[in-house]
Structure formats: structure tokens, C-alpha cells
Amino acid sequence: MLYNKQEISLMADAIQPNMRNKTNILPFQHIVQDFFTADHFQGKHVVDLGPGQCDFLDIAKRCGAITYGVDFDPCVTQLGKLRGHNMADAQNFQESWPYEQNMFDGIFCRGSLNYFTTIKDGPQDAIAFLTRLFSSLKPGGWLWIAPWAKYSEEQEAIAPEIFNLVHIFLKKHGVTVAVPSRGAVAHYGVSYLIPRIEIWIRHLRNFA
Fold first, then answer.
1. Pairing outcome for strands 199-202 and 137-146
2. Could you tell me if 161 and 123 are in contact, meaning their C-beta atoms sit under 8 angstroms apart?
3. pLDDT (0 to 100) of residue 92
4. Considering the domain boundaries, does residue 129 fall inside one?
5. Which of 177, 175, 172 is nearest to 149 (CA)?
């Protein structure tokens, strides 16, 4: 959320209109309370993909993490830098992953990852992107991702194949794919208008 006039002024030109006003930090607090412990943050290098108003990064930093973020919106990256996070600009981090030289203890993303946009030549493009992403995650690293997996009309016919390939990849990398209940969808702020709402979890507490 935005805490003062400086931040509100900084975000007034944000590309996404919903980023120009105060957002609700409560869903991020719920996520941290339900899935994480102090050990997931203290001294750990953590990256948020599309951090919005940097609520998760702020919580992680207060818990002792070294925090990173990546976004296509200069206003978001400036807000992150203002709050002491390491930020990278990327017009499309799914096509050009800016942290190829980094190894993270944790990767977080709520709603900013759509692997369907990576597909140019075929379904394997999605796996190629996830492979690049996972190459920046330490072997024992944690993952919490709620993808915004929305396909185009042209991709509808191959969508089942893509979902299947992605799920096989995730299982191979020790990721649990959870389908949240209606209550959990609201609790964690993942009520997206997409065909399939999922949360990917690795080395964290799971759903009760």
C-alpha cells in the first residue's frame, strides 16, 4: 500500500490504474502468516515478480530478507528502490529474465506471471521460460506463485496440453499445485477472472 504523499505522488503515473491508489496489504499478511516462518526470510535473498506496491517485499524485508523485485512499470521500480529493495526494470520478464546471474532462496509472485504470453512457437516455450526461472532458485529454495494463467482465443485449443506440460514440470521440481477454496481465494487476494486459479507451493507450509 501507499503510506505517504511522496509515494502517492510517485505512483500517480503508474501504468496500471489500480496501482495509483492504496491497495490492501491484508492478503499479503495472510499469505505470510499461513505459509511462511521466520526461517524463510532471515538473511535470505527473496525476489517478487511484479511486486505492485511492494507489500510482500516490505514484509519480507522487515523479517530480515534481502529483497529484490522486477516490474515493467518504472513507477513500481522507483517505489521499490525508495523502500530499500533491489529492483530490476523489465518490459517483459517472462521473455527476458533479468536475474540470470542471481540465485534466490525464494521466489514470490501473486498474479503477475502468465506463462501463456511466453508461447511463440509452441507449448514448450512455456517450459523453457519456467526452466529459466527455476534456474535462479536454489535447490532448497521456496516458491509461492499464484499465476495469472490466461490464454488467448488462438491458444484455447492447446491450453490443456500447456497446463499438462506445466504441471508435469512443476511436479518434477517438487512443487505442489494447490487449488484454493472460494474462501482462500478471497483470503489471499487471488480472485482472478481466469479459467484456472492455482497456487504453486514449494518448501513452505501447505494448505491446512
1. antiparallel
2. yes
3. 79
4. yes
5. 177
Q: For residue 43, what are the domain limits?
A: 25-202
pLDDT in tens, 47-75: 999 999 999 999 999 999 999 999 999 99
pTM, two decimal places? 0.95
Neighbouring C-alpha atoms within 13 Å toward the C-beta of 118: 24
Nearest residue to 56 via CA among 206, 207, 190, 196: 190
Q: pLDDT for 83-128, tens place per residue?
A: 999 999 887 787 778 888 899 999 999 999 999 999 999 999 999 9
Q: Residue 128 belongs to a domain with what CATH number? A: 3.40.50.150
Q: Which of 71, 67, 70 is nearest to 83 (CA)?
A: 67
**Number of structural domains in the chain:** 1
33 contact partners, CB below 8 Å, separation of at least 6: none
